[in-house]
Amino acid sequence: MDHLWLEFAKKVHAIAETGLTFKNNEYDSERYEQLKELSFEMLSKLGNETTEVIRDLFAHQKGYQTPKVDVRGVIFEGDKILMVQEKVDGCWTLPGGWADVGLTPNENAVKEVWEEAGIKVEPVRLLAVMDKKCHNHPPTPWYSYKIFILCKHISGEIKPGLETLDVGYFEKDNHPPLSVERITQEQIDIMYNLSINKELMWCD
Questions:
Q1: What are the E-state strand segments in 26-119?
Q2: Residues 142-180: pLDDT tens digits?
């Protein structure tokens, strides 16, 4: 039920920000500001945080609301996949993160792999575009899409970066605990299947 209410709160916030962007008069502005504050109160109750903390979290989310984009690099070595250990939770995921403005998805994937795993890679092809809500991730304040790009190891030796504790190649069903906010076992299985079936791409 909390997950459902979180989705409601995110939709209310998106409606409020979009309304403030396209408002016609001061009365509309007042109503949409009230709606935005209501969304902050809802998120505050759901996340056991103060309204001030929630307001700061969304301080830069202005204008027409669109999903955030998370880009992941998918690198194989034989039947093993490259994973990095996140400092934030000590668990493992595919190298990647929020897309930077001004970089293409391919460029973002290359950058993230270099920063988190210490190797130079070359993008090969798009494997998947996923709506995070369609997969078994824990609830978050952000509505986001995930882009997975198959990459080829070009040079360098794997090593952790500023945001990672360790790096390694692991078998599909024999890896350390996953950072499920970032990657799920289902998604790893999908990456293996898509890398083998070169004509396929996942989209949901």
A1: 68-77, 80-86, 92-93, 96-98
A2: 889 999 999 999 999 999 999 999 999 999 999 999 999
For residue 189, how far is the Cα from the chain centroid? 18
SS3 145: strand
Separation of alpha carbons 199 and 194, rounded Å: 8
Q: Where are the domains of the chain?
A: 2-57, 68-203
Under DSSP, is residue 7 helix (H, G, I), strand (E, B) or coil?
A: helix
SS in 3 state form for 157-200? CCCCCCCEEEEEEEECCECCCECCCCCCHHHHHHHHHHHHCCCC
Q: Which amino acid is at 174?
A: N
**CATH code at 68-203:** 3.90.79.10
Whether residue 126 contacts residue 195, with contact meaning beta carbons closer than 8 Å, is answered with: no
Burial of 63 (0-12, 13-18, 19+ CB in 10 A): exposed
Q: What percent of the chain clears pLDDT 70, i.e. is strictly above it? A: 98
Q: Which residues pair with 70 in a beta bridge?
A: 98, 146
